[in-house]
Amino acid sequence: MHWIRLAALFVIVSTAESHAQVVAFGPSGTAGFGVSASEAYPARLEEILRNRGVKVTVSNQGVNGDTTDAMLARLDSAVPDGTRVVIFQPSHKDQVSGLMDVHARNVSEIISRLRARRIAVVFLDDQKMKDAGIARQAGAILCGIFSQNVPREDIIESGGQKGRNSDTHPDARGYEIIAERVAPCVVRALSVKG
Fold first, then answer.
1. How many angstroms separate the CA atoms of 78 and 61, rounded?
2. Is 50 exceeded by the pLDDT of residue 160?
3. Which of 15, 32, 91, 101 has its CA 20 to 30 Å from the CA of residue 168?
4. What are the backbone angles phi and psi of residue 102, rounded to the nearest 5°?
5. Structural domains in the chain plus CATH codes
6. pLDDT digits (tens, 9 = 90+) for 74-125
7. CA 106, CA 120: separation in Å to the nearest integer?
């Protein structure tokens, strides 16, 4: 039944929209650390959505090593007018620096500013931060944890080693899994008016 509703949403979105701008906004996970631009999840997501009949452009506005302070500062330049959906993955660098209050405030502010511009926000939580409550309260559509369902063998440590540590990123297959999981959330966001 879930897949029938999802297929109906794809049809509604693909016929109702001539073209939609989506921005993937976040740190190194969004940027596609360790893989080519075409293997990062935003490029894979655009391909998946287009293959399903959704006319969309997904702009990758991920920056390696970003903090939520830096993300807030570049928000307006990274998300141009006309954007329909932002997929927001907050940075966990704030936690490493012990800036939890600043982090929470910035996450809420980023979502609130986007919503004030009538942009739907799809939120990818970082399991270290547990920001789902903040995101929900600010009006975001929750889409799980960023690396949810990515097998251990598709996670690479910064030094190129397989496994999990404090600074890990998916490999190309891992990013594809993320894109497949995020696609229904983006379709849902595109079906929401303002």
1. 6
2. no
3. 101
4. -65, -40
5. 21-191 (3.40.50.1110)
6. 999 999 999 999 999 998 777 666 677 888 899 999 999 999 999 999 999 9
7. 17
The DSSP line for the chain is -HHHHHHHHHHHHHHH-S-EEEEEEESHHHHTTTS-TTTSHHHHHHHHHHHTT--EEEEEEE-TT--HHHHHHHHHHHS-TTEEEEEE---SHHHHTT-HHHHHHHHHHHHHHHHHTT-EEEEEE-TTT--HHHHHHHTPEEEEETTTT--GGGEEETTS-BS--SSEEE-HHHHHHHHHHHHHHHHHHHHS--
Distance CA 194, CA 191 (A): 10
